[in-house]
Design a protein that fits this description.
The chain is of the alpha/beta class. It has 9 helices and 12 strands. It has one domain: P-loop containing nucleotide triphosphate hydrolases (Rossmann fold, 3-Layer(aba) Sandwich), CATH 3.40.50.300.
Length: about 260
């Protein structure tokens, strides 16, 4: 499996109204694609539709295969989903939490921490959380918890990662650390990444491609270099925008 991901006419309707309206885009294997837009634009709903967590119309293909025809276990081996937040209802060791990522690889979706040592330890080293293995996950800081859930995603060994605003609740230092870590582990794994954010500068720093959403509809999609234009930004966020470069040549978006 290479991780080619394509959505065609994906629509989602909730009792309150239409959340997604015919969204189409394609992400080639190994590329990082940002889904950017205002709050309520349908970003999270799109990830959930791709992961089959909400009923949707249209079609999502993984390597040319319709995901609606895949068994849940097979889909979990193919896509790893990291939600905005996860409530830890019961005490659980960090090692055991990361080991949950191995569940799709066992019959019945059960995981056995005793037999998953190497895979779990590799994921924890990659996410720099090995020193937290014996800690209760509920006692971790926000930055530590984000890295632990990244380790669980890595342990799942799926070729597609769906990340829903993974840096949203982090302070600037921990956000920078997480982005640096994600860049490193992606360079090693070459997974296909679909990353939801409303921070356009994050897209500029990490993404190869971008999908801009507004009110459930696609404004533009494709390589960042093609889509990052003032008129697209205004159509997406409702504000005039200017694109600037700093002394190092890094582009930044200034909303006016």
């Amino acid at each position: 499996m290479t991780g080619s991901l394509e959505a065609r006419g994906v629509s989602v309707r909730y009792p309150s109204g239409v959340a997604l309206d015919g969204v189409s885009f394609r992400v080639e294997p190994g590329r990082v694609a940002m889904v950017a837009g205002e709050n309520g634009s349908g970003k999270t709903t799109l990830l959930k539709a791709i992961a089959r967590l909400v009923p949707a119309q249209g079609r999502v293909d993984l390597d040319g295969r319709d995901v609606s025809g895949m068994a849940r276990r097979e889909l979990a081996r193919s896509m790893a989903y990291l939600p905005q937040s996860v409530d830890l209802v019961f005490p659980i060791r960090v090692f055991d939490l990361v080991a949950q990522g191995r569940a799709p690889w066992h019959a019945g979706g059960l995981w056995r921490s005793g037999g998953e040592g190497p895979a779990v330890e590799t994921a924890m080293r990659a996410a720099d959380v090995s020193h937290l293995a014996s800690r209760d996950a509920a006692t971790l800081s926000g930055g530590e918890r984000r890295r632990v859930f990244l380790a669980r995603l890595l342990a799942q060994e799926a070729p597609v990662w769906l990340l829903d605003e993974p840096t949203a609740d982090l302070d600037p230092r921990h956000r920078k650390e997480f982005l640096s870590l994600l860049r490193e582990v992606h360079a090693e794994s070459r997974a296909t990444v679909l990353w939801v954010t409303h921070d356009v500068d994050e897209a500029l720093a990490l993404a190869d491609d971008v999908l801009f959403l507004r009110a459930g509809r696609a404004v533009a999609s494709g390589p960042v270099s093609d889509c990052l234009r003032p008129e697209v930004l205004q159509a997406t966020f409702g504000l005039p925008a200017r694109i600037e470069s700093d002394s190092l040549g890094r582009r930044r978006v200034l909303f006016l």
